Amino acid sequence: MPYRAPVAEYEFLYRHVVGFDQIAATARFEQASDDMVTAIMTEAAKLCDEVMAPLQVAGDLTPTRLENGVVRTSPGFAEGWAAIAEGGWIGMSGDPEYGGMGLPMTLTSAVNEMMSGACISLQLAPLMGQGQIEALGHHASDQLKELYLPKLISGEWSGTMNLTEPQAGSDVGALSSKAVDNGDGTYAVSGQKIFITWGDNDFSSNVCHLVLARLPDGVPGTKGISLFLVPKYLPDADGNAGLANSLKVVSLEHKLGLHGSPTCVMQFDGATGWMVGAENGGMAAMFTMMNNARLGVGGQGVGIAEAAFQHALAYAMERKQGRTPPGTGGTIGDHADVRRMLMAMKADLFAARAITASCAVAIDMQTATGEPEWAARAALLTPIAKAFGSEVGIQVSETGVQVHGGMGVIEETGAAQYTRDVRVTAIYEGTNGIQAMDLVARKMMDGGEAAMLLLDEIESQAEKARDRQPELAEPVWQAAESLRETTEWMIAQGDMNDRFAGAVPYLRAFARVLGGHYHLAAALADPKGTRAQLAHFYIKRLLPEHVGLLTQAQCGAAGLYSLDLAALEG
Question: Active-site residue among 429, 449, 471, 545?
């Protein structure tokens, strides 16, 4: 079944659920009118449907390969990258001074999601470039910006991020890569990095690596790390790709999915690089890129969920098997259990998309207004958007396989590829467990103020909706109040490990309540239509999960350590 980008879904979200009008009302983004948004989304949909979606299977069946030290990409990927670059999609939110469109991140996030649904393996390449563009825009010197940003925004050059090492995964501070001052404004960077997404390609004339490394006097841990821009080819006097730098792709990983996206082991041997940001300020600079990528990864999960749902729905509407209730069409989609699966897929998809869109709105409002409340809202929603978006991608893709029955595990149907491709989204850019720990620790350093303000908004909407949608409003209000009580419990815990023990169920409960909030908004906008029916399903059948999740969240850590690890072998 051909993929179709969900333009109408986003238009509905923008107008009725996540408050896009707030963005358009700012001086920074006043050009983002309804007509412009529709035009941009429509053009992006054409790219996704007509150019990228046909590459989905090709990337899976003909993976990237390393040939004489050069990464050879899957058939059609070079043309796909060219179409993305020529359309200006890489620099949607980039600074117009360097060739970007200066559009809201909310639109960029939506386009990235649609690209992910079409072909996530290729979409990862512009996503990496966008993160690097943002990091350089915030932290690089004017000289580096003037040279690199126009080429990254245009797609002439591509970008990567190099954090992980064999002994330093989530514990970035354990890295061993070194950088030595050359005395001429450059540094010699040495070390090995693993899991480098799109570490090389055969379609951009240069690959620009952002590399974390430690100066000789850098202290242990994250406080002694600096960030360096290390290009594959050193720019010549005219700013074009010149001599080869001292770096190479050692090997490509053989992965569960994302076969069209090369995951490289990179070796840097005294490679020439330029410092980005302050000395020993590498983590602050890199987090700019990582936070951008975390929202993007949440969107990837949503995008693949959309594609998997479309695939499963089309199959369910055609496949005949067994006796269905009288008066129905007679396909498997008319069996009660298949209906349950399809509606759960659609309902969770809406909730996850609304959360990622709301996070993007908060980012744009922070950018446009500089108000600390928006910054806090964006920070709070980022781990939820990343974790829940990726979890929904995994769950919806797995359910899609189930809808297909036996044919779901037959590769030719295409259902299994979504499951394989999406699985890593719960791991990279910070595992979902780390996102949850971040939520209950760093994001609660304000005493829970940002969380409580959001809960106030949820309860306020529910109170106003009691006359119009009483069956939906009351459960949402009660769920928000339960979440508030658990949030207060989290904040009161002096032992951080007690928070961490319940962090994952707490984050998922938070996402469940947010999903109820956004579904209620949708039902208020479409009280007798499909949106209201879907909201009934979510609030009556999925939202109640928050009760058990919040119970788990308050169990503390003691029970997790009541058995020695060795006892688990018995």
Answer: 429
